[in-house]
Design brief:
alpha/beta, seven-stranded mixed β-sheet, five-stranded mixed β-sheet, 9 helices, 12 strands, globular, binds zinc ion
């Protein structure tokens, strides 16, 4: 199995996005004036396995507009085809895309892909409810043209600490797991690499590893309790299996991926332990 870290430009987000305000100000402060972060990466991932090239998310495009809490900085030259070419890959060879969740910085790159696109059925249902519909119109963030993903159901039983999962590869080494919170149908994709480590392509399950250890709900989660429960589940999984935890926007994801640094699930801060040598029992 070969996993490639791709990056399609960067995004600045409001401080109140990364560090959610307490109580009723949590979502309100996203729309109030406030400081922005340094540029964060917009990662997506390519996986070569069993002769199949899969993508997890597709990154952002230069078309993306600023919204009150986020400012994408993407040029045409940084979009998916170039990001893949930099990794020695071609977008024409992709046979399947798995979407972690349907926000623009994860799905806008679909305009470049002619392949099967998979999405959690629950995420697709959520997209069609009034709140996301209104927000897309207000923020002028339409779904990419021709967006017609195939829904899947997380009916594959438990995987590690996750109660609901769905194998994506025939050998079950690439698995979608249920990580609701940021959006109700958010999934992460876990790849069991050749050394037995669980490489967790976490989308926006959190923005950073620090947020995971802090068990801090994010500012956009519709239900903070659901989000915090997911963070506990991820940490429980990290305690069971050596896990390389890779959120899409964590500035440290690329280095953690390159060094195969696994999460120290007992850490109360984002102190990280180096990968253990022996493969886990799955
Ligand atoms: Zn995102």
């Amino acid at each position: 199995m070969k996993i490639h870290a791709l990056s399609t430009g960067s995004i600045r987000v409001k401080h109140s996005f990364l560090f959610a305000s307490p109580g009723w100000r949590r979502q309100l402060d996203l729309f109030m004036p406030g400081p922005f972060s340094a540029p964060l990466p917009i990662h997506c991932w390519a996986i070569e396995h069993e002769g199949t090239l899969r993508l997890v998310d597709t990154g952002e495009t230069a078309e993306a507009r600023n919204v009150p809490c986020a400012r994408p900085e993407v040029t045409k030259e940084q979009e998916l085809p170039a990001a893949m070419a930099a990794a020695g890959l071609s977008v024409d060879e992709v046979s399947e895309v798995v979407i972690t969740h349907a926000h623009g910085d994860h799905i806008d790159g679909l305009v470049h892909v002619h392949a099967r696109v998979l999405i959690n059925e629950k995420e697709l249902q959520y997209l069609n409810t009034p709140m996301p519909r209104v927000m897309r119109r207000l923020l002028r963030q339409p779904l990419p043209p021709g967006f017609e993903p195939e829904p899947f159901v997380l009916d594959g039983g438990p995987f590690g600490a996750f109660l609901r999962s769905r194998p994506l590869s025939d050998d079950g080494r690439i698995v979608a797991v249920d990580t609701p919170g940021h959006t109700p149908g958010h999934v992460s994709v876990i790849c069991v690499d050749d050394e037995g480590r669980h490489v967790m392509l976490a989308g926006d399950a959190t923005d950073t590893l620090e947020q995971l250890h802090a068990r801090r709900a994010d500012a956009v989660a519709p239900d903070t309790k659901v989000h915090v429960a997911t963070l506990e589940t991820i940490l429980a999984h990290c305690a069971q299996h050596p896990t390389v935890y890779l959120p899409s926007h964590d500035p440290e994801s690329a280095a953690r991926f390159a060094a195969a640094t696994t999460v120290d699930a007992d850490a109360t801060t984002d102190r990280q332990a180096t990968a253990v040598a022996s493969p886990p029992a799955t």
